[in-house]
Specification:
By secondary structure, the protein is α/β, with parallel strands linked by helices. The chain is built from 7 helices and 8 strands; from the N terminus they run αββααββαβααβββα.
Length: 276
Amino acid sequence: MEGEDTPTDISSKMQHQYFLKFEYMPCDEDQTHEFKAHKLLSVEDLPRYKIENDLGQSKCKSVSRNLCAFLNTELGGTLYCGVNDNGQIKGLKFTQYQRDHFSGALSDLFSRYTPKVSPDRYKLRFVPVLLPDTNEKDRDELAMLTARVCHDGDLTRVPHLFRSIEGCWCEKDCRAQRDLGIGISRYVIEINIKPWDYDDPSNEGIGKVVNAFPIYSNEEGRAVFRRQGSTTTYQFDEVANIAYFVANARCHQVIADLHKKIELTIASIASKLRTR
């Protein structure tokens, strides 16, 4: 409706340069927004004690489920790590090497999806989290300094360890910095899954003509879908029905667009003939 914000409009308005710790997000968890207090990307990142409780139920879920769910809708969505379920901003401590690790781990995760997720489909940002008593005049400059990339050339060549709960070298480096009294900056990790663009030739969807958005399964082989502020997993026959519905709806839209173009072409030809 006119005057209402679409999910894409809302996300674009929320492109913050920084967040303030303990404040609340300007949106709630919904169809296109999800909050996570942790940074556990894949199922391999989950510590054993967080996987199941005494009833065999999952105590903690990786953010991969939410990312897969956002991919399985044409709307896309944004995941915020470092934000409590109630929307309160806490941030997660990251050194530059840990930021590099997370970026690489995310790329590795999406390479294991079926189909693989193109880098064009998502955007990763590390948004600095400042203390609420930070002088307002200094916030922009401090945020820029916090977001600045600063590397030790030798360490950048050391490969990171993904898909493991053992801990990468960058985790040990972070602990060493903390033990030396070096302050570690906090960030909200913002992973934006872009809306599906039917007309983008780089998007390889269902059908060459309709190019409907594909149904993704994550690293566990599960096709996860978004339902307001939660996720759900469907069986194969349910996924097949969804894929059929998506492709069918897109076919009808393409046919309707072609009818309009044909009508406009006929009207244009008729107008030219009348003027002769």
